[in-house]
């Protein structure tokens, strides 16, 4: 049964536990095709997608895990902002508490907390990872990353409309040399983000977590309206 746009957007949630079942290549192509209707600045469409499954994805999982456990500094190819503070930190802590409670991870349980972090490096063991890149020829401004954000949002919503789950995950590209090597990403591309994708495992407790959204009154300012 098809879903309305509202049902897709409101019902979608981040999926962090997946069934091992493969996702058909044709279905992923369909999802990407829908996602690429996302708007971009001057219709530049700077995005590209490297879709991985099987052995190439396993090599990325292993390389990410090994390098991070060895203390190799991250090598993300986009700017990061450091620690969150204020309301942003509060929201980060809130969702972490929800996830840890669902998974039964106590605050003092370092082993389980570490294992949870490792799941991120392993792309949450999803059967598919889509690495989103953009053309290096337009690197240096904020528009190309903005456009990639738009297409990534469209991607996860299109996937949800087809029964697939996703989680947008920068942990999976923390070690960019590993990703670039095993995904065959050429130097003329900048690695922006990756998306884990697969069939949701309904038995995985964290998949039931629904993050709270701030209200429209907190987010929006209306000017010039007569009412």
The biggest sheet amounts to:
4 strands, antiparallel
What shape does the CA trace take? globular
Bin the strand percentage: 5-15%
Adjacency order of strands in the biggest sheet: 1-2-4-3
Mean pLDDT: 95
Helix content: 40-55%
Global structural class: alpha+beta
**Compute the gyration radius: what is it?**
18 Å
Strand tally is 4
- Spell the H/E element sequence: HHEHHHEHEHEH
Distance between the termini: 39 Å
Number of helices: 8
Unreliable stretches (pLDDT < 50, length at least 5) are none
Description:
29% of the residues are buried. A four-stranded antiparallel beta sheet has the order 1-2-4-3, sandwiched between helices. 42% of the residues lie in helices and 13% in strands. With 227 residues, the protein is α+β, with helices and mostly antiparallel strands. It is globular and about 60 Å long. Helix 3 (54-69) runs antiparallel to helix 7 (176-183). The model has no long low-confidence stretch (mean pLDDT 95).
Quick structural summary:
The chain is built from eight helices and four strands. Strands 1-2-4-3 form a four-stranded antiparallel β-sheet, with helices on both faces.
Any chance you could write out the topology, listing elements then pairs?
Layout: H1 5-11, H2 25-35, E1 47-52, H3 54-69, H4 86-103, H5 110-121, E2 128-135, H6 143-161, E3 165-169, H7 176-183, E4 189-198, H8 216-219
Antiparallel strand pairs: 1-2, 2-4, 3-4
